[in-house]
Amino acid sequence: MHKLTVVYASAQDAKAFEAYYTATHLPLARKLPGLKRLNYSFNLQPVEGGAPPFCLFEAWFDDGAAMGAAMQSPEGQAVAADVRNFADAQPTIFHGPVTEV
Length: 101
Prior knowledge:
Layout: E1 2-8, H1 14-29, E2 37-42, E3 55-61, H2 64-72, H3 74-82, E4 92-97
Antiparallel strand pairs: 1-3, 1-4, 2-3
Helix pairs in contact: 2-3
């Protein structure tokens, strides 16, 4: 499995972010070809201090090639373009293989 993780550090208007994210952005993300599963969390709390991220999104694909193809697809391009419609700042995005134990 290969996981794409997106971290949104903050939101100036948390209610507006959450409303747009759940009603508009997530339905776009669910259309990514090859998507195996996704999840998201709002209002995460740090275990030992520090600034928590506002939102964390994770999407799983069979492998890196499947994730790359999904992000290059028209659906992936729509998801990427939509971020500017609700995020105050560019999110941190990373990906890599997941080892289940």
